[in-house]
TrEMBL record:
Signal peptide: none annotated. This is MarR family transcriptional regulator. PROSITE patterns: HTH_MARR_1, HTH_MARR_2. Gene3D superfamilies: Winged helix-like DNA-binding domain superfamily/Winged helix DNA-binding domain (1.10.10.10). Keywords: DNA-binding, Transcription, Transcription regulation. InterPro entries: HTH_MarR-typ, MarR/SlyA-like, Tscrpt_reg_MarR-type_CS, WH-like_DNA-bd_sf, WH_DNA-bd_sf. It comes from the Bacteria. Residues 16-150 form the HTH marR-type domain. SMART domains: HTH_MARR.
Amino acid sequence: MSSSAGPGPSPRSRRADPLTREVIALIGDVVVRYHQEYEEAAARHSLTGAQARVLGLLALDPLPMRRLAGALRCEPSNVTGIVDRLEARGLVERRPDPGDRRVKLAAVTDEGRATAARLREALDFAREPLATLSDADRTTLRDLLRRMLGAEL
């Protein structure tokens, strides 16, 4: 007897599917182009890509260093160096967490928030092509990406 979960191609045959390979290649192209544009936008503000990413995250909310490291999927010591350099430029500051004064939060300054906004505005690669899609198409794309990443809708 087969222990198959149901009809349809096996995972192995889906990987070999030309449509799947094309979709994977297109996703790869999108990622490469996004990272290139992100690095170029960061460089125009004399930032590394990692510094720009930290600035963007902190523009949303102040974060403890450990959570920031988790969001970036890197070691806390790496985040410390990035935050140190952003702090030296007046873009980020450290402050006590009001809920636990033993914890330090990294937070953007007014200049950091303005720089993060300019960075977001400079990223046209995804924004312009997405603007050509209907709301329904963008919603479908968002939902499919969330499913691919295993996120709840």
